[in-house]
Specification:
single chain, alpha/beta, Rossmann fold, two-stranded antiparallel ribbon, binds S-adenosyl-L-homocysteine
Amino acid sequence: MQDTFRHKGLRRKLVEELKELGIKDEQVLQTIGSIPRHWFIESSFEQKAYENTPFPIGSGQTISNPYTVAYQSELLQLKPTDIVLEIGTGSGYQATVLALLATKVYSIERHKPLVNHTEKLLQHLNLKNLQCFYGDGFEGLPQFAPFDKIIITAAAPEIPLKLIEQLKPGGLIVLPYGEGEVQQMMRIKKKEDLSIEKELFEYFTFVPMLKGTK
Ligand code: SAH
């Protein structure tokens, strides 16, 4: 897998574009600037890897566009000590961004062919702090809970209560909330007294979060 000067140049431009779109978190921008996004998409789309667009990644799913990845990552307020759970591994790109910003990342995907494909790529990248699981994200990963941060990268029709349970007090979960054509980005904080506080942000379009596995 190659990462040429041309790829690096395109990535620098993408980072500038993300800044113009309002992304401020320097760590997030730097991380996106460091990851060869073209490794995560089919070679027929490689030309467009550094444009701010989503792509099909097989099994009818998409890799989120870079602005969406940056936006969700920024809302998570990641710390180097964070243990993170991602729902919707997909291409593994968002998981890789998280793995470079946190201490440990667990990611769940419900499509077996995608899990197999992405695990191969991630093995190649050799990120020792990233682990993928085949399963239903609505269930979370109780055996590895609690998490400091949880990110859902598919449109959640409801707030998954099991995931709130698996969040540490003081933890955050970021999810695109809603069932229609567009979803509103939501951040939920689980407070020390275990009550929850919701904040709403911009609108996005995600593939749906579906129950069960495939
Ligand atoms: N984070 C991904 C985005 C993938 S799109 C990336 O960076 O490429 C969303 C993914 O969520 C899809 O692959 C879809 O199969 C998965 N998904 C949807 N519902 C799910 C569920 N209940 N559990 C786990 N994964 C789910």
